[in-house]
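Record type: ASSEMBLY
Status: queued
Input:
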Amino acid sequence: MRWVSQRSPVRRKKRKKPAEVSSPVQTDFDSGSFRDRAGRVYLCGDRVVRGISEEALSDWRKLQETGLYARLSDAGKIVATRALPAAQVPLPEQERERWAAFLEHDRIPAISYAYEWSFEMLRQAGLLTLDLVEEAIGAGMILKDATPYNVQFVAGRPVFIDIPSFQTLQPGSTWAGYRQFCELFLFPLMLQAYKGIDFQPFLRARIDGVDVQTMAGLLGLRDRLRKGVFSHVWLQARLDRSYASTRRDVRQEIRSAGFSKELILANLRKMKTLLKSLSWDGSGSEWGSYADFHNYSEADLSDKESFVEQCLRDSGADTVWDIGANTGRFARIAGQHARQVLAMDVDHFAVERMFRQNGAEGVTNVLPLLQNVCDPSPNWGWRNGERRDLASRARPDLVLCLALIHHVVISANVPLEEFVDWLAGLAGQLLIEYVARADDKVESLLRNKQDLYADYSRKNLEACLSRRYTIRRQHTLGSGNRFLYWCVAKG
Amino acid sequence: MKIILLTVLTLLARPAWAYLDPGTGSMLLQVILGGVAAVGVAFKLGWHRIRDALGFAKKPGAEEETEETR
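Status: finished
Output:
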């Protein structure tokens, strides 16, 4: 394996035949990879390429030489990565010259963020991070940071993607990622487990997570008795305040006092035990805590399943979004026919149950995500591009929209026509279920609300669908209150 | 104002060895959390500093005084 030298980009270019360089394809910075100066991620068509600095290059070599890379990669804990010879870097010359070397990573099928995950997903990502720090220390390295944005879910399991985060461990140093781990993993999980407060709005509101002072303010006196709160929250908040303006070189003092990696390892073990002890039973969830929350008869349910399955099979869709997936019954059916399914629901515990059930059933191509179509993940962070909306990260061939339309039109007040327009812009195919006004689910939505929803009718839906799509198949369930349409966009 | 100035000076003085600010208090906490294994380190570091930081022994501002009279 040959490495590109940073000092000789011009000579290298002269030595090479021009034909060796792949013609530049459409490339872009990954807009979330700017913080660490040691590297930058480029998206080149379908390929993910990372330029790395001289220092990061030496860490990458160490990662390989110690056998750590092979061990973690074989275990599926880190993304498959290889060195990319200069001749194969599909980037313009000025970008190629910026970096000492290039790596290529396997592409992640669908990028998701911690504020779209359920409790168990965040916990698994946190445990993976701790695991990697522990393994890295064994090889004389450490993870320089600890953010869930460095973890993605692939085939139902968390995978670490930020290879340059592995760096050589400086003797006597503490774990620099500890505070970040608290803010982005531990505190959100504690909020959910101890207070029953959904953590996702916190992570979506502040890119650095729940800061220690906010966390201390959210927890009361009695909470200090709960596991980990006194030390990681109260004590850290206290020390944070006291030392905010210190002029001492505390880092050097700690090093001189003989701080060792054994101490980091001891702290990691305790943190792991703490994370494993946190649990959440879904209290406060509207949907997911009910074992049976639908109002279909068994006959209607199996009728609906077989219609949906036939349409999905005939659609040839490679990627499917199930919006309003609940606990994933239909998303898993879609997963039997499509390569990748993103299964979204607005209810945290529904997503949690879906994740657990996928794991139990060994379903690997259905990614559960917390997502509200009426208040979706935004573009935000630096230049409003650090974290992206879902449609910028992935696109479906087919959208499953089963028994959702009444929530969008009646509960969220989105005009029906606008909803259909949005769906038509999202994917070429749509499988939608209309819930009639006579259905008790719709009746209950309207019971204490002024009915301003003249547009909520089957006739209007069919008219709107016909403007944007060709209705390929339609089906009425036995109850007479549920109507299914498989549509293909016009043009 | 003084606090802001001190904070800025502290940030400027910190060696640029990592892009992430580990947080001074959070670093010290890692010593405290080490428990029995960290007793030696805590002793050398001067347990009184941690105690001072927690505000059990000295009045606010004492840290700066100590700093200047060292």
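Annotation: Residues 2 and 8 of chain B are 10 Å apart (CA to CA).
Annotation: Residues 2-13 of chain B form the longest helix (12 residues).
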